[in-house]
Specification:
The protein is of the alpha/beta class. The chain has helices at residues 17-28, 60-69, 84-89, 91-111, 145-164, 195-203, 231-246, 264-275, 299-305, 314-331, and strands at 8-12, 32-37, 51-54, 72-77, 116-122, 167-173, 175-177, 210-213, 225-226, 228-230, 252-256, 262-263, 281-284, 293-294. The strands form 4 sheets. Strands 3-2-1-4-5-6-11 form a 7-stranded parallel beta sheet, with helices on both faces. The chain has a 3-stranded mixed beta sheet with strand order 12-9-14. Helix 6 (195-203) crosses helix 10 and helix 8 (264-275) crosses helix 10.
């Protein structure tokens, strides 16, 4: 059997930002896909590849039917709630969806002898690390229920791997950004909380200004530094992780980041240059819980899987995001 072989890759949350890009990448590489999404945060407009069903992972009857009706070979699990602030206000919502529903999914995978699992994790498991770059062996210190739910699931995966033969790769994203260069899918969150789309909203005149939270950090220009990684690079990493497992590779965890950082002011200045817009920025107080710098070490995934974040230059990220942003407001949000 070839690496692709027969069978279907189930993508939970495949109508969301990263899941839709992964679906496109899998399809481009010859895989058959099946998406399940409840559209709380995903978009039906992003269902452009493979088959799909509207549903929730709390619905175990539907999940069992999907596994009965389709030869699922592996699962990519993106179906999580990911708003840090909301998780503080509504932790139950996050534990039920991000933890309980993952347990539902794993249970039904085992019932059908499906053992290959790619997990969408996050750098939020590290909390406020004492040093950068951040390596995979650093201690978990999540500071929000969102980060805690991801840490809990990573513990479950480790235990299930030892006890039940689950084969998994956990991918800890840093700041996913940018958009499909073909503009077929892109970043579309409601509400939007990410810096780059908020800056581009300001460039379009949909916001009056962008706030800079803190200008007195111990960083080169005083503003927070983050590791931005292009969403298409993330999608490619998921396929590499899948092929690693399907060729007999061991369970593992990897950071997904560019390995470099860009400050808030750098992002705004790049966006001004690319869009030609003034982009009014106002300086505000620090937000509690914002570390000065979060930058990944990606040495492990580069060494083990051969991944290279070739599209994660901050200029390319903002250029593709700008192309998508204008199209999105033209077509979907008139």
């Amino acid at each position: 059997m070839s690496a692709k072989g027969d069978g279907v890759i189930l993508i939970t949350g495949g109508a969301g930002y990263i899941g839709s890009h992964a679906n496109k990448e899998l399809t481009k590489r010859g895989y058959s896909t099946m998406v399940i999404d409840n559209f709380h945060y995903g978009h039906e407009e992003f269902l452009k590849w493979g088959k799909s069903v509207k549903g929730d992972l709390a619905d175990t009857t539907l999940l069992r039917q999907i596994f009965r009706d389709h030869p699922i070979r592996a699962v990519m699990h993106f179906a999580a709630y990911a708003y840090v602030g909301e998780s503080v206000k509504e932790p139950q919502k996050y534990y039920l969806n991000n933890v309980r529903n993952t347990l539902n999914l794993l249970e039904i995978m085992f019932e059908n002898d499906v053992r290959n699992f790619i997990f969408s994790s996050t750098c939020a498991v590290y909390g406020e690390p004492g040093k950068v770059p951040i390596t995979e062996d650093m201690e978990f210190r999540p500071v929000s229920p969102y980060g805690e739910t991801k840490a809990v699931v990573e513990g479950v995966l480790k235990d299930y791997s030892a006890a039940y033969g689950l084969k998994y790769v956990s991918l800890r994203y840093f700041n996913a950004a940018g958009a499909d260069p073909d503009c077929e899918v892109g970043e579309w969150h409601e509400p939007e909380t990410h810096l780059i789309p908020l800056v581009l909203d300001t460039a379009l005149g949909r916001r009056e200004q962008i706030e800079i939270f803190g200008t007195d950090y111990d960083t080169p220009d005083g503003t927070c530094v983050r590791d931005y990684v292009h969403v298409s690079d993330l999608a490619a990493a998921h396929v590499l992780a899948l092929e690693h497992l399907m060729s007999g590779g061991a369970s593992d965890v990897f950071n997904l980041g560019s390995g470099t950082g860009a400050s808030v002011k750098e992002v705004i200045d790049k966006a001004r240059a690319i869009t030609g817009a003034e982009i009014k920025a106002v300086e505000s107080e620090r937000r509690p819980g914002d570390p000065p710098a979060l930058v990944a070490s990606n040495d492990k995934i580069t060494r083990k899987l051969g991944w290279k974040p070739g599209g994660s230059d901050i200029s390319h990220i903002i250029e593709t995001a700008w192309d998508w942003h204008r199209r999105m407001y033209d077509e979907y949000r008139k």
